[in-house]
Every structure is written in C-alpha cells, then in structure tokens.
Write a structure and sequence with these properties.
Elements (H helix, E strand, L loop, with lengths): L11 H7 L10 H13 L4 H13 L5 H14 L4 H13 L6 H11 L2 H7 L5 H12 L5
Helix pairs in contact: 3-4, 3-5, 5-6
Length: 142
C-alpha cells in the first residue's frame, strides 16, 4: 500500500500539547478507567473503540498492542456491523502502530459478503484506491 506508513506517525507537536494533561504513567485518569474496563471485563463497545485506540496511540500507551489485537479479535468473532469494522480500518489507515492494516482488511474481506464489502468502497478516497490496488495485486480481484 503505497501511501501507508507503518508505526508511529502522530505529530510531535500534538504530543507536546497533550503532555501537560498526562500523569506520570502517561495516561489520564479517564483513559485508565476506560482501559481498565476493556481489559478487566473484556467489554469492547463499538462506539468507543476508535476513540480509545486514537488516544492510546497518541499517548504511547503500554497496552496499545493488546488493545489492537483485542479489537481485531472483536471484529473477527463478534456480530459487529461492517460500518464499525470499517471505521476501525480507517483509523488504522492513518495510524497503523502495529502494522495490522492488512490483517484487518482481510478479516473484513472474509467476514462480510461481497456486496457489503463493495459498498464500503463506493467513495473514491486514497484508502479505497489503496485497498483496491492491494486486492488486485494479491489476486483477490474484487
């Protein structure tokens, strides 16, 4: 995927603006509470996953890898609708800390029917173009 860069790519100026509001462990109290709920109860709410991922990535959270793979497992094993899965894919397109964009892409590709998958590609964006190129190059022609 031509434009996609793997690893940390959040802007440093943003991190500096956030830093004064962060405790010694790198997490705000609200984020620690939300992360605690996720990892203690294994409760993943579709509407908060993207925000949690973004905040955890921005703050270089130590649970980031576990959160990433928990979200992938959530997409793979639960009855999450394609829009929520696609929203997480969009987040990964911009900030793929653990290089799992393709993993999530192919999970979505396999899990949902062809019409649902194609409906997510109906708007011409750089991400859509990169996904189409990836699928064609991998001979999974849509």
């Amino acid at each position: 995927m031509g434009q996609l860069t793997c690893g940390k790519n959040a802007a440093d100026p943003i991190r500096k603006r956030v830093a004064p509001n962060v405790d010694n462990n790198g997490l705000t109290i609200g984020i620690m509470v939300e992360l605690g709920k996720v990892f203690k109860n294994r409760v993943l709410k579709n509407d908060s996953l993207n925000a949690l991922y973004k905040i955890s990535s921005l703050l270089d959270d130590f649970n980031m890898e576990s959160l990433t793979y928990s979200i992938i497992e959530h997409i793979k094993c639960t009855d999450v609708n394609i829009s929520h899965a696609w929203d997480f894919l969009k987040v990964l397109y911009v900030d793929d800390t653990y290089c799992v964009f393709k993993t999530v892409l192919y999970t979505i590709y396999k899990k949902y029917n062809r019409d649902e998958f194609m409906s997510m590609l109906k708007f011409t964006t750089q991400m859509s173009n990169d996904i189409i190129s990836e699928l064609i190059m991998d001979r999974r022609v849509i």
